[in-house]
Amino acid sequence: MEIDLSQFSQVFFEESLEGIDVMESELLNLDVNNPDEEAINTIFRAAHSIKGGSATFGFSQVANYTHLLETLLDEIRDGRRQMTNEHQDMLLLSVDLLRNMFDALMRKIDFDDPLLAQLEKQFTIEIAKGTKEEAPEEPDSSNDTLVEQEATGLLRWAIDFQAGIDILRCGNDPYLMFNELRLLGELNVSLAENSSPEFNDIDPEACYLNWQLELITDQPLERLKEVFEWVEDECTINYSSSPVINENSEQDDKLSNIEPDEATVYQEQQGSETVQNDVEGKRLDEAKASNQGPKPKSQAKLPETSSIRVSIDKIDLLINMVGELVITQAMLGQIGQQDEINEESLESLKQGLEQLATHTRDLQESVMQIRMLPISFAFNRFPRLVRDIGQQLGKKVNLVLKGEDTELDKTVMEKIVDPMVHLVRNSLDHGLETPEERLAKGKSEVGTITLNAFHQGGSIIIEIIDDGAGLDTDRILRKAREKGLVGQEEELSTEAIHKLIFKPGFSTADAVSDLSGRGVGMDVVRRNINELNGSIELKSTQDKGSRFTIRLPLTLAILDGQLIRVGRHIYVVPLVSIHESLQVEPNKINRLSDGHELIQLRNEYLPVIKVYQEFCHTSDAKEIKDGLVMVVDSNNEKIGLLVDELLSQQQVVIKSLEDNYNRVPGVSGATILGDGTVALIIDVTGLVSMAGITNMKEHAA
Length: 701
Description:
By secondary structure, the chain is an alpha+beta fold. Helices cover about 45% and strands about 20% of the residues. A 6-stranded mixed beta sheet has the order 14-18-19-17-16-15. It has a 5-stranded mixed beta sheet with strand order 6-8-9-11-10. It is flat, with a radius of gyration of 34 Å. The C terminus is likely disordered.
């Protein structure tokens, strides 16, 4: 019986990526000078699990590479090799490489990265250096054969593998185990004599075969046993070994066919006490040769799948709620079967509908909780980012994470990561000073970046705080005037100057670097946050530091909205964007020379968008004085929307227009109302852009 393992591959990918995250976290927290034994064991187990699973699924490229990691880590955890900073760097690079390898596997495309060959070479050379317990012994000239045997480090293992009759029923395939053994050396496989039942008595799901295996390898018995550890309880496995004699003439032939410099390296490696086995060397040579030859065509990219792990408690709660709904439905159904509706049955109907509304609301909240994840899933990638960039820039940085248990929707989390990465990179590059500059200012030489998350109302707040140089307002204003964004004589408040960094293409950087300068791409950061129906605010004090505050809805699936009417059309405005609504007196309305209208609201002048004009509708109120003005927030600036009528406030389920139709300017999605009609959800920022009044506040002033 052949088992299709592809059905389990998604689970393997998820578990492997979690293992990679664990490896990275432990490596970042590791004190190289005094490594924690349990941390090393944790890293080793993660690498071992990835290697074993990859071999099982036939992902030989990953299995071969993680075998090198596992070998090095095994020597470190056994105390045979001292952990070094170089090892830590190699392993952290391996974390990045493995993520990319799994990304290629999940998308079913070929993986071709020069870093793979580079790291394979580094690990091979490092392992070949030998360990501190392998001190060279004086050769015994009286027994040349023994000396040659010790020099090879190879053993010929005879493995008697008597498979249990139920091995296939448990999902274990001997063929995959033999493939993993081939990764360790030269393997020959032959069937052993055994008895089997008569043909009519054969169980197609049973295994009646036994094997004799011969393996030449330098690996210890413990490593061989790891291959069979999943089946050792149901199978009988016997091991015996004998040394492999080294043939000097064969080594001389190899040396004669390579260049002098290569021969020197080869001799040094062969003189080492631990030498990679012949099969490992052949594999690396074949990998290099394959890299030089023509590449096979990549398979078509398949849509990526996304999944989420849910605790059994949440599932149990859902099942209980569904049970309550079924009971309520049965009660309502019983009322519906009555021939007559009297006062008693009408009262029961009302109670049933109230229960239905309650259960539906509770079920909705529970389903939304399933999508909620702690923001630590996003925060966990920043220790590595801060470490690498800090080393690159020669800055000492302490990263502080707060509110890691704060939960938000998985979809929101995935989309906010990139803006957060950009903000943190900017804080590292242009926010924090060098140790020398900080000491000169009387600060600690170690800068601090803080990521903080907490709930506030129906939103989640994410703060990126640094204690660096802050924004240089004079320099920002000078650059803005040079670019023509601000008039030469125009005066701006500190807050308005800070907002200039969000202008498209604005930057104070004198030279382009690999790391974005504070201001480079900040318009993209703000746009991405706006697309999540969120906002970003900035507060900065020179030589004290900066604080970016991101406000986001907890979920993109459900929205608290205000229904409005424009003519005969119903729209939804996100409640989080609304400040207030009012009727405007005619003497508070002003018209600019370009035709745009402003209203005076207390001490501010706000531009007004006539929604019916932008969406080409017929409206009851064509003038501002005849309708209602809804004051909304767009990029931290107030804008007025002229509408005919305010309707109810309610939660709406968001449906993507882009997925089901096309992208529509000024509209972020749609929803279905209680009467079955479709209402479009207004994208306030997009509507402002359509109206062409993005800078009206400055013009009004």
